[in-house]
Specification:
With 550 residues, this protein is of the alpha+beta class. Helices cover 33% and strands 22% of the residues. Strands 1, 2, 5, 6, 7, 8, 19 and 20 form an eight-stranded mixed sheet that branches. Strand 19 (499-501) and strand 20 (507-513) form a beta hairpin. Helix 1 packs parallel to helix 6 (148-165) and helix 3 (71-82) runs antiparallel to helix 4. The longest helix has 18 residues, at 148-165. The protein is globular, with a radius of gyration of 23 Å. Residues 8-536 form the FAD-dependent oxidoreductase 2 FAD-binding domain.
């Protein structure tokens, strides 16, 4: 079976960036062909699985929570986190500046107009490394969309359905691109294979059996095919050993296996420039999913600030390597031990108030968009249902009534790297002595009290300070934490309009890229560090730019 298509704009990848680009191109009167190697049930890509958090600046939600934000403060935080230091960072800088203008300007009104709404308590993610001019968010900026990832996708799905019904859009699912054809500096067509149909549920591995081929011709081609986090070999190949230490031998996957970087390689083979490939964003708080959907499926714990964090050798992690503060710094600190895992030790009181799990499927209350379910889940007795399920079934969880039994359970999980009871006990006891009055030299205790100065954290995110070894706060809980692959911060080099820049430094006419495959814009608009909420935000912004220009 062989097929041929023609459209004004061809978009490769039906995730959020591709969907946004399609809606913008259609609004300009362009005909669009939207392809994806997965089935229709996977429309929306990784965004479907997301928590739906968006980085926005100086919003009504922030002001209602008493948060004073500004584009100047956000720009300071972004610059301190990005740490741009390469010649090729010129375009990423431009995209970052434009995104900050967008996030502090029309972003919220645009999204509100098409139907998005946000949970009123703004989250404080990635709090940073301790210096005002350094990495991290100075204030809460993480706006959780009602409906989580599906809620972000819903308005664009609706617009695309209407465009399809009107004959302005054609979907081509199970179409895998194998060639991008560029002649004399102009992108003109693509070619590829048609895969057999699949009814596999979203996220599960699908067949790669080929049943035909295709070619497609268009005036503009937009690549929105995502990153490399599902292919551990590719992750290790570009791993920045000099900055982070040796790549882990064992990792778990925060994305499905179709996130394979294949299209980025094809674009590079056609002459597209790839920059900042060594900049990546992988989490340190990953746990094995007891009910997996894709291979090596891991889930990230979104921790509040109170769990005690120990490295694989049983040494308490020092500031700023505290829960929720400095992701890549903590990754480097963990790997410096020569091992790949670390441990949380906490209490039932902490897990009830502070543990959340990343992902739409792990937050059915927020995904439902119904206040009743949220109040019942978040303010009822015990942790949320998904968290309690992990506590009961998760291979990385240990629950015990006393510390000695807890550590025995931890050593059963990692018998080759046993922990010493006396060493752990002495560190916890020292921390517990700091709880009895309002003064402390312990940086984490100070951080907990600082977090509770924000009423959003005090209300739903940070437990009241208490002794870890207080039996009334128990039982005790330990969680082995694994390295979880997630995002590519570098990728195809583009300008502010999403136009692809070739390896010779010249624009490839008719070729665009957006979303994670373009480092969320420019080839790496985050620089070295992300501030969270900027992955979906980057897909929205860069997809919109490309769709308006293609």
């Amino acid at each position: 079976m062989s097929k041929e298509y023609k459209a004004d704009v061809i978009i490769i990848g039906a995730g959020l960036a591709g969907m946004v680009a399609a809606t913008e191109a259609i609004a300009r009167g362009r005909s669009v062909l939207l392809l994806d190697q997965e089935g229709q049930q996977s429309l929306g890509g990784q965004a479907f699985w997301s928590l739906g958090g968006l980085f926005m600046v100086d919003t009504p939600e922030q002001r209602r929570m008493g948060i004073r934000d500004s584009v100047a403060l956000a720009a300071q935080d972004w610059a301190g986190s990005a740490q741009f230091d390469r010649t090729e960072d010129a375009n990423p800088r431009l995209v970052a500046d434009a995104y900050l203008d967008f996030a502090s300007g029309e972003m919220r009104s645009w999204l509100h107009k098409i139907g998005m709404r946000w949970f009123p308590v703004v989250g404080w993610a990635e709090r940073g490394g301790g210096m005002a001019h350094g990495h991290g968010n100075s204030v809460p900026r993480f706006h959780l969309t009602w409906g989580t990832g599906p809620g972000v996708l819903a308005p664009f799905e609706s617009m695309l359905k209407a465009a399809k019904d009107a004959g302005k859009l054609r979907f081509a699912f199970r179409h895998r691109v194998t060639a991008l054809e560029v002649h004399h500096g102009v992108a003109s067509s693509i070619a590829g294979e048609i895969l057999e149909p699949t009814d596999a549920p979203r996220g599960q591995s699908t067949s790669r059996t080929v049943v035909g081929d295709f070619r497609a011709f268009g005036e503009s081609i937009i690549v929105t095919s995502g990153g490399i986090g599902g292919d551990f070999t590719k992750v290790r190949h570009v791993w920045p050993t000099d900055r982070l230490g040796a790549a882990p031998k064992n990792m778990i996957a925060g994305v499905p296996d179709y996130v394979d970087g294949q299209m980025q390689e094809i674009a590079q083979g056609a002459g597209a420039g790839i920059i900042n490939a060594d900049r990546m964003w992988h989490y340190t708080e990953g746990v094995q999913n007891w009910d997996p959907i894709w291979p090596n499926h891991g889930i990230r714990i979104l921790p509040g600030p109170s769990s005690m964090w120990f490295d694989a050798l049983g040494n308490r992690m020092e500031a700023p390597y505290l829960p929720g503060f400095d992701t890549l710094g903590t990754l480097r600190r963990i790997l410096s031990t020569g091992h790949e895992h670390s441990w949380f030790i906490l209490t039932q009181k902490i897990i009830e108030k502070e543990f959340a799990l990343s992902g739409s499927e792990q937050n059915p209350d927020f995904t439902s968009g119904k206040w009743g379910q949220v109040l019942k889940s978040r303010l009822g007795k015990g942790a949320t249902g998904p968290v309690e399920a992990f506590k009961k079934h998760g291979a990385d969880f240990v629950v015990a009534d006393d510390l000695e039994t807890l550590i025995k359970g931890m050593n059963k999980i990692t018998p080759d790297i046993p922990l010493a009871f006396d060493h752990i006990q002495s560190q916890i006891a020292a921390r517990d002595r700091e709880i009895d009055n309002e003064f402390s030299k312990d940086a984490q205790v100070t951080a907990i009290r600082g977090a509770r100065n924000y009423r959003g954290d005090k209300l739903i995110r940070t437990a009241k300070p208490h002794r870890i070894l207080d039996s009334s706060a128990g039982p005790l809980i330990a969680v082995r934490l694994n390295i979880l692959t997630r995002k590519s911060l570098g990728g195809i080099h583009t300008n502010l309009d999403g136009k692809v820049i070739g390896q010779d430094g010249e624009i490839i006419q008719g070729l665009f890229a957006a979303g994670e495959v373009a480092g969320f814009g420019g080839g790496g608009y985050h620089g070295y560090n992300a501030l969270e909420g900027t992955f979906l935000g980057g897909c929205l912004f860069s997809g919109r730019q490309a769709g308006r220009c293609a």
